[in-house]
Amino acid sequence: MQILDGKQTSEQIRQEIAAQVRKIKEQGGKTPHLAAVLVGHDGASETYVANKVRDCEEVGFESTVVRLPDTVSEQELLDRIAELNENDAIDGFIVQLPVPRHIDEHKVTLAIDPAKDVDGFCPANVGNMCLGLPTYVSATPNGIMELLSRYEIETEGKNCVVLGRSNIVGTPMAILLSRNTAPGNCTVTLLHSRSRDIAAHCRAADILIAAIGRPNYVGADMVKPGAVVIDVGITRIADDSRKSGFRLVGDVDFEAVSDKCSFITPVPGGVGPMTRASLLQNTLKACQRKS
Amino acid sequence: MQILDGKQTSEQIRQEIAAQVRKIKEQGGKTPHLAAVLVGHDGASETYVANKVRDCEEVGFESTVVRLPDTVSEQELLDRIAELNENDAIDGFIVQLPVPRHIDEHKVTLAIDPAKDVDGFCPANVGNMCLGLPTYVSATPNGIMELLSRYEIETEGKNCVVLGRSNIVGTPMAILLSRNTAPGNCTVTLLHSRSRDIAAHCRAADILIAAIGRPNYVGADMVKPGAVVIDVGITRIADDSRKSGFRLVGDVDFEAVSDKCSFITPVPGGVGPMTRASLLQNTLKACQRKS
Predict the structure, then answer these.
(1) CATH architecture of A139-272
(2) Stated pTM of the model
(3) Could you tell me if B281 lies within 8 Å of chain A, comparing CB atoms?
């Protein structure tokens, strides 16, 4: 069994991006600039945005955080988005979700100019992905594709099972791996809460992608010997033996499965860091598209 | 075995639409108006557009055909599309594909206002479909969903195999049947030219949708007893015994398969007429959305 090391791979990607940014700067080009809109003071959102700012600094991007109080009106938020759409200094931006309940998340997503939608959440970009057109693929599926690519995992003709049909992970993953691309050309089966015989489907998978948010759900009995296992889940479990009081657990029972499969992503250090690196890749692309 | 009668069902849909149009007119509302842009003189395209005009007449819609010579420049075509986007009299329109080679089909699709894109081909509408948002679903997948719905075929938790990953049939079909809707909630496997063990996958299908354009490809050995079989294929085969000199053949070997399955669409008279009715449904929706 070999670890698909997301930490190391994402570090390599960040170094590649940093090298490209240095080159852009040397040639007098525009420094890529990511903005993040943060509404309110949700603890997890604060952390995610802080990480994004740190990632930008590390690769030489500029970054801007637009902080708005959780009392901001929907219209005010939409106005700020319109400003970011117009602002040529900003190459791409994200609105950190969730937004407060009085704001319609869908309206927010729709307000973002698809050319600056580096999260890849707006319908036009999702549609472009489906149609195989240039787009921003959302961060987690993009990171998984990158991991499969860099580890040169053979995907063509393989049976791939995706567990979970969320709009930001499972569904795009199923679409991307079905397409006539490399990685891609898999025979993909998409499983979800209404599926039957889930274990049997999983056992038939050459590539198994678990994205349902249920800790340790995938046991050894659900994995074909030699399968490639990608674990998107990341759940905090109380753990008194840790200083932090918790540990992070994936959807896959790593101990049980790791002996049986050919490749596996650990949690943490697998898909998570790849997701972070993807946002940087999309921002660089947004900057290069304009020039 | 029961026939999924697309001819009869589409006739019923047309009658329902006609009744709605009469009601709209009685109440002084706007008559739905579909426009079709036809470039050049491709025989099949002429027929398709003529059928669309006839369908409109039958249900009481207005229709307009914009005929352009095959020498039309890309810019001229885009200008005509812009006019149709702006023209409040036109609720929805389609550009009959293919367009001549000197015109970029993708640019054409992108130029259509998503609110008038009753073919459902533009990225924003494809993305909306993926995300489960209000949209125009393209005609063939929409027609199949309608057929499953009107025959009250149970889909939840069923294994569905879609044969063929085209942008206008296979891929949207796989997405639609995976979603948390009714019809929907299937466990969908999407097969294509790079898939292996195609027959074995098909044999596991409770619902089999064949959309690869290979006449009689699906034999009885590929069908599970009691399966629901949807045949999207329609290929002209030379046949001297027919006055026309040809007959239409689906992707499914109807003679062999029909004894084994629970439901099956015939060719012709199955998916084809449902596809035509879908365009009318989308045009009515476009008209109602505006008011």
Answers:
(1) 3-Layer(aba) Sandwich (3.40)
(2) 0.96
(3) no
